[in-house]
User: Fold this.
Amino acid sequence: MQIALIADLHGNRPAVEALEKDLAFIKPDRIICLGDIVGKGPSNDFTFDWAFEHCHLILGGNWDYGVGYQEFPNDQYYWEQLGEKRLQKLRELPAEHELMMSGRRIRLFHGRPVMENLIVAQHDVSLIDPFFVDEQGRRYDAVIYADAHRQALRTISPGLFVNTGSVGNAMGIPKCCYAILCAEEGPAPAPFEIRLRQLDYDRDQAIRDAEAAPRVPRIETYIREIKTGIYSR
Assistant:
């Protein structure tokens, strides 16, 4: 079974269109979105609708909840573009999900708000390890999350810590980034593979879309990030 793990679409229509073409080629059995389908970019109605049409599961991210609950007054552009029905759906997104694949227990979430502060793969293992333990003290075999916008795969003892990267606002490598999980569903031991995938997309069009939407909050920083892959907020 192949599961596409996507995240951080962030209102970037050209990136999502490139993702859609690649998924048509890969033909995954399932698409799971790890959150932040809105915010930052100009085309949030498009990325929202695309995610709800194509994904088997969508988890909530910090931007999804922040926009959905209308927490920040400067986000009025997003509220108006999305409308109340979409905002309600953002508020209802689950925060995390668990899979059992190839005998491995896998925890999926966006990052924040499950993480109080964003932890990246380069952080000390003492900050990472608590996310491998559930409330009953049982361990996960893998933790897969998003939010950092930077693809990563790190083994710890024991466990696998994975960041999918960002479809629409990638850091480090400014491309459309996502992950593919290849495994057998269920508790029986079987081969297990995670691939980190990167796609070119029409970044010039993404910049033109952003420049045509000056009411988007902090649109200049979004444009710099699309151009450079360097966080600028």
